[in-house]
Amino acid sequence: MSGLKEDIYEHASAIYETIADELKSWFGLFKEIWPLALLLILAFCILVWLAKPAPPTKVLMATGTGGSYKALGEEYQAYFEKKGIKIELIPTQGSIENLEHLIDRKDPIQAALVQGGMIASDHLTGVESLGSIDYEPVWIFYRKNLFDEKQKILDRDIVKLKIAIGPIGSGTHIHALKMMEMNNLPTNSPNLLALSNDEGVNALEKGEIDAVILVDGFKSKNVQKLIHNTDLHLASFRRADAYTRLFPYFEEVTVPMGGFDLGKNLPDHDIQLISTTTNLLIDNRLHPAIQLLFLEAAKEINGVKSYFAKAGEFPAYINSEAPLSAEARYFYQNGTPPLMKYLPFWAAEFLERMFFLILPFAALAFPIIRSIPNYRLNLARKQINGVYKQLDAFEQNTIATFDPQRRDEYIEVLNEMERKILSSKAAKIATADCYSLRNNIEFIRNALQRQMIYKGRDN
Question: What pTM did the predictor assign?
Answer without folding.
Answer: 0.67
